[in-house]
UniProtKB/TrEMBL annotation:
Pathway: Cell wall biogenesis; peptidoglycan biosynthesis. GO terms for biological process: cell wall organization; peptidoglycan-protein cross-linking; regulation of cell shape. GO terms for cellular component: extracellular region. Residues 1-31 form the signal peptide. Residues 262-384 form the L,D-TPase catalytic domain. This is Lipoprotein-anchoring transpeptidase ErfK/SrfK. It comes from Asanoa ferruginea. The active site is at residues 342, 360. GO terms for molecular function: acyltransferase activity; peptidoglycan L,D-transpeptidase activity. Keywords: Acyltransferase, Cell shape, Cell wall biogenesis/degradation, Lipoprotein, Peptidoglycan synthesis, Signal, Transferase. CDD domains: LDT_IgD_like_2, YkuD_like.
């Protein structure tokens, strides 16, 4: 048995979870008075200047410039508004935001200190006052204060979803998946992506990548997550204005954990599944894949959902002549188009010999039961040698690309340290929030 498309797959419910994260304020240190004739010390002893030595010229100090956005008394701003901070010749010392009742709003500076991001959406139809303090390299302190107000709720929201359950454990290939309905226009993707924050512990920096339609965005690192990694996500989208007249619907947060490495590999040539745990081969199973008229998809797929018992009903899609309705055990969804790993007692004699399914990976009942008990949502399965390639967006296809291909889908510039091969990638400070 094989391909199964349900109304649920076409209009799947979007699930979201809530979690919180933290980011400390980082201040740059400045020192020295810039004098060329300052004495030199080695191991605590003052050294005499070399005869005839000429002091090195020093660059003139950078003029102290300090600006804040939004403009004072600005009205009708979105609840996604950040406090923009621009400083030359100094550094931001503090940012404080209070509402009209004087209550402080929590938030943090971005890593590049280009703006201060509230930890939750601002309130609609509310006045705020931002106080920003900056200090020059020479110690000069300057304070700027701006007041602004937010607009009312429009009601013309996009639909969005975060495929990550708070507190759950996932497989090493689990991407952070965001879904949008309708899709995000290309001209808006950079602004949306700037509002997507991910932290990983231990740090494994990654990149967001969009599918062409803008209906999904994936976040992953260059390699599979390390077992035991903690992932925290915030999609801070509530109120963000889009060019199609819509706005972001809500902020979504989740925090999850990555479990042990568990990988499945299927080769159409041998019609066998090899199962690896922590990079050790632990099982080999015969399989039957999709027959030539309904082939399985070749590529790297990810377990998206698991159902111990379900029903495949294809009459609505295939009609009364080709459709079927069958009880299925140990079903693990791999694509939105209806490809699964599942128990298939009717094809045991074909498994390891020939392909007879409608696109699914058929296993003997005892093998399907064992595998179902071992896998997690987010575990990868690589299928090769079939008549069809996995289509982008047909499932969570973030790993069906090389790293070089994947990062091309980012709407923002990718740091140079992340552009190399996975083995050569550096580990910069991860993107963080809260």
């Amino acid at each position: 048995m094989g391909r199964f498309v349900t109304r649920q797959a076409a209009t799947r419910r979007i699930l979201a979870a809530v979690a919180a994260g933290t980011l400390g304020l980082s201040l740059a240190a400045c020192g020295g008075d810039g004098k060329a004739d300052a004495p030199t010390f080695v191991n605590g002893n003052q050294q005499a200047a070399a005869p005839g030595a000429t002091p090195s010229p020093t660059a003139p100090p950078v003029p102290f410039e300090f600006a804040v956005t939004p403009a004072d008394k600005k009205k009708d701003l979105p609840v996604s508004t950040e406090i923009g901070t621009s400083v030359k010749g100094g550094d931001i010392t503090s940012v404080t935001l209070t509402d009209k009742a004087g209550k402080a709003v929590k938030g943090t500076l971005r890593d590049d200190k280009s703006s201060w991001v509230p930890s939750a959406p601002l309130k609609y139809d509310t006045s705020y006052t931002a106080t920003v303090v900056a200090t020059s390299a020479a110690g000069q302190v300057e304070t700027k204060k701006v007041s602004f107000s937010t607009r009312g709720k429009s009601g013309n929201d996009i639909g969005s979803g975060l495929y990550l359950f708070n507190g759950k454990t996932y497989g090493v290939a689990m991407p952070v998946v965001l879904e949008f309905n309708p899709g995000i226009p290309k001209k808006d993707r950079a602004a949306v992506q700037r509002r997507l924050f991910v932290t990983t512990d231990p740090p494994q920096p990654g990149v967001w990548s969009w599918v062409d339609s803008g209906t999904q965005a994936y976040y992953r690192a260059a390699d599979y997550w390390q077992a035991g990694t903690k992932i925290s996500v915030r999609a801070a989208l509530e109120g963000i204005p889009l060019s199609n007249g819509r706005v972001g619907d809500e902020d979504r947060k989740a925090s999850a954990k990555i479990g042990d490495k568990f990988v499945m590999k299927v080769d159409n040539k041998t019609k066998k599944m090899l199962v690896y745990k922590s990079d050790k081969l632990i099982k080999t199973f015969p399989v039957s894949l999709g027959k030539p008229s309904t082939p399985s998809s070749s590529g790297t797929l990810i377990v998206m959902d698991k159902q111990e018992h379900t029903v495949f009903d294809t009459f609505a899609e295939l009609g009364p002549e080709e459709g079927y309705r069958t009880d299925i055990d140990f079903a693990q969804r791999l694509t939105w188009g209806g490809e699964y790993i599942h128990s298939a007692p009717w094809s045991v004699g074909d498994q390891g010999v020939r392909n007879v399914s409608h696109g699914c990976v058929n296993l003997a009942p005892q093998n399907a039961s064992w595998l179902f008990a071992q896998t997690k949502v987010g575990d990868p399965i690589t299928i090769k040698g079939t008549e069809r390639k996995l289509e982008p967006g047909n499932g969570w296809t973030a790993w069906n690309q090389t790293w070089a291909e994947f990062i091309k889908g980012s709407a923002l510039p990718v740091p140079a340290s992340l552009k190399g091969t996975p083995a050569a990638s550096a580990t910069p400070t991860p993107t963080t929030t809260d």
